[in-house]
């Protein structure tokens, strides 16, 4: 009966005739693929094709060859070829989960020959086991049938070869005999592998954690022993009872790239027990209970009912800005502002250009003063003017000392590049006071508008955290922006950065380099800073180190060069949530006066957090070059957990109160190793946003 089912399946799969059945045939197929077929079918000369139907026929033939090659590579246990095919084609193109004429899938062959590397590669690509093996008996019967039919075919061909006289037909039958002998050995090996295998052991290191107020997360590792058969899926079960009766739910995980699962839709404050079991072709293995044995969905905010710090802040600021705009629009001095078109996307460059005298253009040389330069880059190219200069416009030629307050104000303006016209009109109204500060800031807005008009773009990018200064009294405020697409700009063109640096070096003075020379010398560092400052952390809970140093006009914060938008940090765990129980323990630990708090009970979430914190603190102290014995005077910030977007959260480690912020002239005995820098606090806050 099973044989008849397979023959029916063979008829249904008529579009997939059996491929080569011997190692030599497989090698010939590989050579064929590497030559005629291992090219994209669209690379053929389309003029030689009759039409779309002919191209589609060629494509199907091409993909069929790749499917046959995958089966042969798995049968020959050629891991490199399997990986090459999986990388070159999608699972759909390979027909990865369509049975062949024998009713087998590539994954079936891999697991029944116990080829673990190939089986894992196929599983990573989304391979499944054959759905026809609904039970152990059906799989065993099918393998026995394949072995018996292959043996019968070998006997028939052997008799024909022995009894017939040597001729062309006999030579062909000898080739068939060798192929069937090889396939007979393959089926026997698959049958022996199936009979020898047993159900897998239980998964190891099953860890349970609280993911939110309505979910828990379980992570686990593979069993120590899979008992001669690759694990192809896992089952996660959960219940409110330690006996798992009744069972509240279960989930089967067949995507094995990451061994974890989040159980959602749970009731806050209710204890949930979780266990995990593994499956191979011999069935499900025993379940393994999690550690801790249960978890209660919760969040640290439930401890005192605290609302998120930033809830509604963005909406409130947008509303406030809208009110300010409305008030200014009714001012007589702002009548022209009312006439601004509602949609300025397609006419920005033209409207900006009309604000300036026709002679407005980029500067070639610097005088003593304050300037704005915009660096646009793409890969190893940078935008320059037609004179091969970085775009520079003048802010104030009488301004020789940039006050930090003016620079920080400029960085805040960079968050409103689209509102420069409106900001200019607002500042114009206030100029009756003749304030030097207002005049400087109005000139900054004029320079921004001029740069936007000359480039034909509004967004000038991110402000570099410090200006470039030279001994001649020139000060450059630098903005940086990476261009992702092949965008064209007005009055500028793309050139390689190395070419620009070489040409500038030939005309500059090495004794007294100008601010532009200094900018070009350090441009790679600035571009690297800009790229790193936009990187995001992977989801998880982190331990951050807050260290400040003050100067006369600013406070600076210590950050790592590789991620200058984040405090110095190490990762505690992948789960960003702090549960209510963990937060209660942290509060108790913060209130204990002894240097070493009492360790929490074993097999609890608090104990796991305690162990994770110990490891993280040691790693962080090493990172910032602070002796571990000094850590006893440090403390955890216990007022709140810092949340960033719901996927990243921070616990802060603080030095002793007197050392949080180093005053001017104060000696800092512990200097971090290389790889750190200090940013003005306001710049860091903008980058963090």
From TrEMBL:
One GO biological process term: regulation of establishment of bipolar cell polarity
Record-linked PROSITE patterns: ANK_REP_REGION, ANK_REPEAT, FN3
InterPro entries referenced in this protein's UniProt entry, alphabetically: ANKFN1 (IPR039269), Ankyrin_rpt (IPR002110), Ankyrin_rpt-contain_sf (IPR036770), FN3_dom (IPR003961), FN3_sf (IPR036116), Ig-like_fold (IPR013783)
Keyword rRNA processing assigned: no
Residue span(s) of domain Fibronectin type-III: 202-299
Any one GO cellular component localisation term in the record: spindle
SUPFAM superfamilies, per the entry: Ankyrin repeat, Fibronectin type III
SMART domains in alphabetical order: FN3 (SM00060)
Record's keyword terms, sorted: ANK repeat
Repeat region (ANK), residues: 102-127
Highest taxon in the source lineage: Eukaryota
UniProt region (Disordered), positions on chain: 1-25
Protein name, per record: Ankyrin repeat and fibronectin type-III domain-containing protein 1
Biological classification of the source: Eukaryota, Metazoa, Chordata, Craniata, Vertebrata
């Amino acid at each position: 009966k099973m044989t008849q089912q397979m023959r029916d399946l063979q008829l249904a799969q008529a579009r997939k005739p059996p491929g080569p059945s011997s190692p030599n045939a497989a090698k010939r197929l590989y050579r064929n693929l590497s030559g005629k077929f291992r090219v994209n079918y669209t690379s053929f000369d389309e003029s030689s094709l009759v039409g779309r139907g002919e191209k589609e026929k060629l494509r199907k033939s091409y993909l069929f060859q790749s499917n046959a090659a995958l089966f042969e590579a798995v049968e020959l246990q050629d891991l490199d070829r399997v990986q090459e095919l999986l990388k070159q084609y999608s699972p759909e193109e390979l027909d990865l989960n369509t049975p062949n004429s024998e009713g087998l899938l590539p994954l079936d062959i891999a697991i029944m020959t116990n080829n673990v590397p190939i089986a894992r590669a196929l599983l990573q690509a989304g391979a499944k086991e054959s759905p026809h093996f609904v039970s152990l008996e059906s799989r065993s019967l099918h393998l026995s049938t394949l072995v018996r039919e292959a043996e019968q075919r070998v006997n028939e061909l052997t008799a024909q070869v022995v009894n017939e006289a040597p001729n062309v037909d006999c030579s062909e039958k000898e080739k068939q005999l060798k192929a069937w002998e090889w396939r007979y050995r393959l089926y026997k090996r698959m049958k022996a592998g199936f009979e020898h295998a047993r159900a897998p052991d239980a998964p190891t290191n099953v860890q349970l954690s609280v993911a939110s107020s309505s979910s828990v997360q379980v992570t686990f590792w593979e069993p120590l022993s899979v008992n001669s058969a690759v694990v192809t899926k896992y089952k996660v079960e959960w219940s409110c009872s330690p006996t798992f009766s009744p069972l509240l739910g279960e989930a089967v995980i067949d995507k094995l790239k990451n061994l974890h699962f989040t159980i959602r839709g749970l009731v806050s404050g209710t204890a949930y027990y979780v266990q995990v079991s593994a499956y191979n072709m011999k069935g499900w293995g025993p379940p393994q209970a999690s550690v801790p044995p249960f978890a209660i969905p919760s969040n640290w905010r439930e401890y005192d009912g605290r609302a998120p710090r930033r809830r509604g802040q963005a909406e409130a600021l947008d509303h406030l800005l809208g009110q300010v705009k409305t008030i200014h629009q009714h001012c007589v001095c702002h009548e022209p502002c009312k006439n601004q078109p509602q949609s300025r996307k397609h006419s920005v460059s033209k409207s900006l250009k009309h604000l300036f005298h026709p002679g407005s253009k980029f500067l070639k040389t610097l005088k003593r003063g304050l300037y704005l330069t915009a660096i646009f880059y793409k890969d190893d190219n940078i935008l320059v003017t037609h004179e091969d200069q970085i775009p520079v416009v003048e802010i104030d030629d009488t301004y020789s000392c940039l006050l930090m307050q003016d620079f920080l104000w400029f960085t805040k303006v960079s968050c409103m590049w689209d509102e420069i016209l409106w900001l200019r009109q607002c500042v114009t109204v206030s100029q009756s006071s003749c304030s030097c500060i207002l005049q400087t800031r109005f000139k900054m807005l004029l320079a921004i508008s001029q740069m936007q008009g000359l480039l034909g773009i509004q967004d000038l990018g991110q402000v570099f955290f410090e200006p470039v200064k030279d001994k001649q009294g020139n000060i450059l405020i630098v903005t940086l922006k990476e261009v992702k697409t092949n965008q064209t700009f007005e009055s500028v063109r793309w050139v390689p950065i190395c070419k620009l640096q070489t040409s500038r070096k030939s005309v500059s003075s090495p004794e007294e380099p100008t601010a532009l020379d200094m900018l070009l010398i350090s441009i790679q560092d600035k571009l690297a800073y800009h790229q790193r400052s936009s990187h995001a952390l992977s989801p998880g809970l982190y331990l951050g180190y807050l260290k400040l140093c003050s100067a006369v006009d600013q406070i600076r914060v210590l950050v790592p060069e590789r991620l200058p938008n984040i405090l110095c940090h190490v990762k505690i765990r992948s789960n960003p949530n702090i549960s209510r129980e963990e937060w209660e323990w942290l509060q108790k630990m913060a209130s204990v006066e002894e240097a070493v708090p009492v360790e929490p009970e074993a097999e609890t979430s608090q104990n796991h957090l305690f162990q994770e914190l110990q490891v993280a603190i040691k790693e962080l102290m090493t990172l910032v070059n602070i002796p571990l014995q000094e850590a006893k005077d440090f403390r955890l910030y216990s007022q709140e957990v810092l949340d960033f977007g719901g996927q990243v959260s921070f616990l802060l480690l603080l030095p002793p109160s007197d050392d949080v912020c180093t005053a001017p002239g104060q000696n800092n005995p512990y200097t971090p190793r290389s790889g750190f820098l200090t940013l003005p606090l306001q710049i860091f806050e903008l980058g963090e946003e």
